[in-house]
Amino acid sequence: MVDITVEEIELLTLESLPFAVDYGFRVDSLESGTSTVRAPYQESFLRPGGTISGPVIMGLADYALYVAILTKIGLVELAVTTNFNINFLKRPEPGDLLAIASVIKIGKRLAVGEIEVYLDGEESMIAHATSTYSIPPKT
């Protein structure tokens, strides 16, 4: 594990990831190759019908995997998503969202991971995603 703290991730987020700041995303925990990230509920997350919108869920999942990957490679800002696939499994009611990301494989140029998204306090997943990130070459 690269020694990265929640505080370092928060600083990187504030400086370089305005969408995550706007959504209020915050890191609950970090371990080597994993992260748990929270989206504190905002009324602006809702779409017609009173459900949390897909773009919020997808953004949270993508951010969670980015954070998990950084625990393996360090603060590499230019690691970027190259593929993202999500299955929405259950209609999320208003509430905080939790995304639990795990790195499945990490190589020199690519990292692959999966993300489980839950409504806080619920046991059943509301979404499951897989994603691939491109890791820039070391200079």
How does the SSE layout of this entry go?
Blueprint: H1 6-16, H2 18-23, E1 26-31, E2 34-39, E3 46-47, E4 51-52, H3 54-73, E5 80-88, E6 97-106, E7 110-119, E8 125-134
Antiparallel strand pairs: 1-2, 2-6, 3-4, 5-8, 6-7, 7-8
How would you characterize the overall build of this protein?
The protein is α+β, with helices and mostly antiparallel strands and 139 residues long. It has one domain (6-134): Thiol Ester Dehydrase, Chain A. Helix content is 27%, strand content 40%. It is built from three helices and eight strands, in the order ααββββαββββ. It has helices spanning 6-16, 18-23, 54-73, and strands at 26-31, 34-39, 46-47, 51-52, 80-88, 97-106, 110-119, 125-134. Strands 1-2-6-7-8-5 form a six-stranded antiparallel β-sheet. A two-stranded antiparallel sheet has the order 3-4. A hairpin with a 2-residue loop joins strand 1 and strand 2 (34-39). The longest helix has 20 residues, at 54-73. The two termini are 21 Å apart. 32% of the residues are buried. The model has no long low-confidence stretch (mean pLDDT 95).
